[in-house]
Specification:
The chain has 163 residues and is an alpha+beta fold. The chain has 2 domains: 107 residues, no CATH class; 55 residues, no CATH class. Helix content is 48%, strand content 16%. The strands form 2 sheets. The chain has a two-stranded antiparallel sheet with strand order 1-2. It has a two-stranded antiparallel sheet with strand order 3-4. Strand 1 and strand 2 form a beta hairpin.
Length: 163
C-alpha cells in the first residue's frame, strides 16, 4: 500500500514538472534547446536599434527560459529588469496573437511601441500589422491572457498567407 502511494506521488510529481516545462514553452517562443528569441539579444533591440545575435557565454536563465546577450552589460541590464526587455506575447508573432494563433518570428521583423518589443512572423506581416498597429495591439493584449498557456498545436498551425 505504501509503495503504491509512493509510486503515485512520484508519477504526480513528474506530471507536474512536465506540465510546468510545457507551460513555459507555450507562453514563450523558444527553440528546441530552450533558447528565446532565436538566440538574439533582447536588450540590443532597445539599445542598438537592431537585432544582434547573442552569445552563449553571456546567457541568463529566467523562469526556465534562456536568453543570450551580445555583451555582459546587456546581460546585466536584462537581469535587473527582465520585464522591460522581454518581447510582448512571449516572443510569438504579434499579428499571430491578434488572430489567436502562435507563429514563430523572424528576428529582423520587429517593432518597439511605447517601450514594448513586438516581434513578427516576417517583414510582410510586420507591414500588415503596422497598418492598424494600435488596434492590433489592443486586440492582442486582450487575447493573450486567454491563449498564452495554450499550445501552438492546439491553437492550430496553419500559417497565415504570405503578404
Amino acid at each position: 500500500m505504501i509503495a503504491k502511494r509512493g509510486a503515485s506521488f512520484i508519477a504526480a510529481f513528474f506530471l507536474l514538472v512536465s506540465a510546468t516545462l510545457t507551460l513555459a514553452e507555450d507562453e514563450t517562443h523558444i527553440d528546441g534547446s530552450g533558447i528565446a528569441l532565436n538566440g538574439f539579444d533582447p536588450v540590443a533591440y532597445f539599445e542598438s536599434g537592431k537585432p544582434v545575435r547573442g552569445r552563449s557565454d553571456h546567457a541568463s536563465r529566467i523562469e526556465g527560459i534562456t536568453y543570450f546577450f551580445a555583451s555582459r552589460e546587456n546581460q546585466i541590464a536584462f537581469e535587473r529588469e527582465p520585464d522591460r526587455y522581454r518581447p510582448a506575447y512571449g516572443g510569438w508573432c504579434s499579428y499571430g496573437i491578434r488572430v489567436g494563433k502562435k507563429y514563430a518570428t523572424d528576428p529582423a521583423a520587429w517593432t518597439i511601441v511605447d517601450g514594448r518589443l513586438f516581434l513578427h512572423l516576417n517583414l510582410g506581416t510586420k507591414k500588415v500589422w503596422s497598418i492598424d498597429r494600435d488596434k492590433n495591439i489592443e486586440v492582442a493584449d486582450r487575447l493573450w491572457p486567454q491563449i498564452k498557456t495554450i499550445s501552438k498545436e492546439t491553437l492550430g498551425d496553419n500559417e497565415p498567407m504570405s503578404t
